[in-house]
Amino acid sequence: MSTEKCEGERYETSTERLTDSADGGGPPAQRGITIVFHYRDGVEVAQLAPGQARVVGRGEPSDLCLPDRTLSREHARFSLNEGRILVEDLGSTNGTWIAGTRIERAEVALGGEVMLGTVVARIVVLGTATLPLEGEESFRARLDEEIKRARHFGRGFAILAVRAPAPDAARAPLGAWVTGFMAKLRTGIDRASLYSPDTALVLLPETGAEAASQMAHAVSSAPSPGTAAHIVGVAVYPEAATTVEKLIELARGAAAGASAARPVMAAPMEAWTESGVTRLHGGMIAGAAMRDLLDAAKQVASSRASVILRGETGTGKELLARFIHEHSLWRDKPRVCVNCAALPPSLLESTLFGHERGAFTGASQQRGGLFAAANDGTLFLDEVGELSLAAQAALLRVLETGRFSRVGSTHEVEVSVRVISATHRDLDAMVKQGAFREDLYYRLSTIELEVPPLRDRRDEMDSLARLFLTEANAANGRSVRGLSDEAMAVLCAYRWPGNVRELRNVIERAVVLARCELIQPHDLPPRVRAAPADDGAQAAARRASEPEPLADESALGRPVKAHVRKAEAQVIKEALDKVGWNRTEAARRLGMPIRTLTRRIKELGLTPPK
């Protein structure tokens, strides 16, 4: 290890060079490296030959241009000379960072990472014959990270389960058969681990269904003439599943269903199995009103009783349904979501209950339907008040009997499904008007939970605004630090007819438009600035404009800002502790720029454990 000095600070960086021992390749003068860049919109791979230098930035005249707003036009230069990999910052705005320290010029180790703004550059060896197999723990950690990345950026990835032909697995040393397919993977991007003597798992980051299928067929092809093909199962996130365990299970199940005649098999992909609701990164923000509601939700979660969630549009009913499922005894079972308002009457029965092949025009194959998909788990019926009377009758029957028949079949299918429904409509009034079946209403509403509107949850405003600000910064490549007291007062005075969803959109708009470190009132939409406030909102606005509420405590039992500060410190410290205080990795997991993390560590007075 060597120590270099940059901007008055000292830090350690490995000086492992590109020598023969690194991967068994030729002499350094004849070998190159690959730099893998992970940025908000994708992955880019650049090759660097000995004696070559490449400039990376946002636009010309950079050699490699990445469409990331945290990069400067000419951000950094990478070079390879005499086996040394060097990176040099070119006066960028957001800096070049190694191990949490901003550098001007430094040497990078093989496998090392460099942060360019929020872009992660990883150094790997070019031209190795195969990728190294990873241990199970390391591989699963990478899967967890990929799921977080995919959820944050709204993109997919795939897992392959590759089975060796039985003779190969029996004859070869443990894991040796994998060399037949690993050379076909993308060096520095794809990851592989031995699951069992005859099965390997492969992670394909940033890979959709079509690309995953192409890769699976390439992997399955026989390594040489006269040899057997590998058997490959494919599971794609999020279409097939949204958890690590389920993806692995589905990939292995698909491989088990494949054969020499059909060596590649994909797990079923159903777009409706994953809710499109915005996730609040680890849970719901809970002030006094929501804390009581979540306590009640936990209490009913373990029962199979039907639950109906009532509340205005945008209050978070779908998040609460997910919360109930994840705190139930069936948390590992399917959770299927459907927007009843989006179901065409002509397709309602086939969507809910499935259909046989040929049951109607266009029914080219059998489909199980939503109830079958949710068997042993939870079915969430959003906007249940929008169902037609005919649809209500069909739904009532399966809720009463636990049985249904697919369209085009007389055979009854038995299911065990926990139903959670939600509506913003007044179902009591609809029952009196004859627009909603009374018997269905009673069947759905064994337990009723009311989600309060945001105007009654003003103690959450600061926490929600900070959360959405962090998300908007990451999504738009911005580094807005927060909201001014005046802007927060305006938010607290507004009545929020669109509730939490509207707040999220307002914050993202303000982040995009902000011209300084803090969001100001003029960055907010005119309707928010001009809205008249009721007495409660005016009081909340006055409290928000005060630098620190000392005498008046919020419904949380302590000043809101102090509560938020303590919660933020706890989240940041936990993230740092999990990665051994590696600021680069912690910043990535928290979804914030590393310089913002460094500043918050200092402001919150956080220190590493001794």
TrEMBL record:
Molecular function terms, GO-annotated: ATP binding; sequence-specific DNA binding
GO biological process: regulation of DNA-templated transcription
CDD domains associated with the record: AAA (cd00009), FHA (cd00060)
SUPFAM superfamilies per the UniProt record, alphabetical: Homeodomain-like, P-loop containing nucleoside triphosphate hydrolases, SMAD/FHA domain
Composition bias type Low complexity, residue spans: 529-542
Keywords from the UniProt entry: ATP-binding, Nucleotide-binding, Transcription, Transcription regulation
Domain FHA: 54-103
Compositionally biased intervals (Basic and acidic residues): 1-20
Region of interest called Disordered, as start-end residue ranges on this chain: 1-27, 527-561
Gene3D superfamilies the record matches: 1.10.8.60, 2.60.200.20, Homeodomain-like, P-loop containing nucleotide triphosphate hydrolases
Annotated ranges, domain Sigma-54 factor interaction: 289-512
Transmembrane residue ranges: none
Pfam families (alphabetical): AAA_lid_14, FHA, HTH_8, Sigma54_activat
UniProt cross-references to PROSITE patterns, sorted A to Z: FHA_DOMAIN, SIGMA54_INTERACT_1, SIGMA54_INTERACT_3, SIGMA54_INTERACT_4
Protein name: Sigma-54 dependent transcriptional regulator
